[in-house]
Specification:
With about 220 residues, the protein is an alpha+beta fold. The protein has one domain (about 15-210): 3-methyladenine DNA Glycosylase, Chain A (Roll), CATH 3.10.300.10. It has 4 helices and 9 strands. The protein has helices at about 30-35, 120-130, 140-145, 180; strands at about 15-20, 40-45, 45-60, 85-90, 95-100, 110-120, 165-170, 185-190, 205. Strand 5 (about 95-100) and strand 6 form a beta hairpin. The termini are close together. The structure holds a DNA duplex (13 and 13 nucleotides).
Length: about 220
DNA sequence: TTGGCGATTGGCT
DNA sequence: GCCAATCGCCAAT
């Protein structure tokens, strides 16, 4: 199932290797699936916060629900970067959203990281969120950004490079990778909270994982 | 220059 | 389950 069992062993360390750009699918929808099971790592001077991606949504080129639908604007410039760059925006006057660019440079596509399963730095996440409920720390895009203290300054970062924010894969456990390596199916559904293209099945999640957000009807288990 | 609106959350019924 | 809060973006004036 999940890696939640590791809570029983606080000393558990994860070995995480950074993803290389060359291994990322150059396609927003494929990359969204690929990222399920991968890890978001946030480095602080005092420690590290990391979490395993359990839910993501694709906003591919031509998608009426995508910010890039009406052509390029200053805000969305990072979605035009090569796959594996961050696109961070501020929404509803209150929350930052972390996205990963998914198309070849010059073409816009984004993947919204909607939820992660906390791995390292849980105490730090609780502090950032001012919340002690483990299940509420990173379940939802706004919460995840707050727990990782991701803001506008993290827009346009190369996530395949060492730095304050990067993408990785757990080394040494089958649960570290996505569908192909683990053999576990990835759930699919329509996306959450949008009005246009509301019937497109572009949301991907790990069935049964308690850190997946959204209503039950969208989170069918295997 | 302005107003409508949003890839959400948390609090209250 | 419903709904207000809140503010940056951008299309239209």
């Amino acid at each position: 199932m999940t890696l939640v069992a590791n809570r029983k062993d606080p000393a558990t360390k994860y070995r995480i290797r950074r993803l290389r750009r060359a291994e990322l699918p150059v396609d927003t929808v494929e990359l969204a699936r690929f990222l399920i099971g991968k890890v978001v790592v946030r480095e602080f001077p005092g420690g590290r916060v990391s979490g395993r991606i359990v839910e993501a949504e694709a906003y591919p080129p031509g998608d009426p629900a995508g910010h890039h639908y009406r052509g390029p604007t200053p805000r969305i410039r990072s979605m035009y970067l090569a796959p594996g760059h961050s696109y961070v925006y501020f929404n509803y006057g209150a929350h930052f959203m972390l996205n990963v660019s998914g198309e070849v440079a010059g073409r816009a596509g984004g993947i919204l990281i909607r939820a992660v399963e906390p791995l390292e730095g849980i105490a730090l996440m609780k502090k950032h969120r001012e919340c002690t409920e483990l299940l509420d720390l990173t379940r939802g895009p706004g919460r995840l950004a707050a727990a990782f203290r991701i803001d506008r300054s993290h827009d346009g970062i190369d996530l395949c490079k060492a730095g304050v924010l990067w993408l990785g894969e757990i080394v040494g456990t089958a649960r570290g990778s996505g569908k192909e390596a683990s053999g576990v199916a990835i759930g699919e559904s329509v996306r959450i909270g949008i009005s246009r293209a509301a019937d497109h099945v572009l949301r991907f999640y790990e069935p049964g994982n308690p850190y997946v957000s959204g209503p039950k009807r969208l989170n069918a288990k295997p």
